[in-house]
Amino acid sequence: MVVNLYTPQAIWGTPRLSVQVVPHGMPSGLMGGFAIATLDSGSDVLHAETAVRGITTSDQEDVTAAVERFEAIRSEALPISMSIELIQKVVGERWT
Q: Is the pLDDT reported for residue 4 higher than 60?
């Protein structure tokens, strides 16, 4: 599948996905990648990457800490429309 990065649909084509750019140098406190998934039952599960392995847990304390970290990172990110404009600008400058 070829994706055209010049169309917003390529970046946020579904209601369940959005892309927001966190400006370089912003102190987000991100120490590794993580994903939070909501199961059909409504409970949340966290998958966090470490230097040696990934960890998946439904421990409420861990999930809550990750949700709080996610919200802190998102509060530093550019709005969706500005993120898309920046991505399109960089793609145009570097890959065309």
A: no
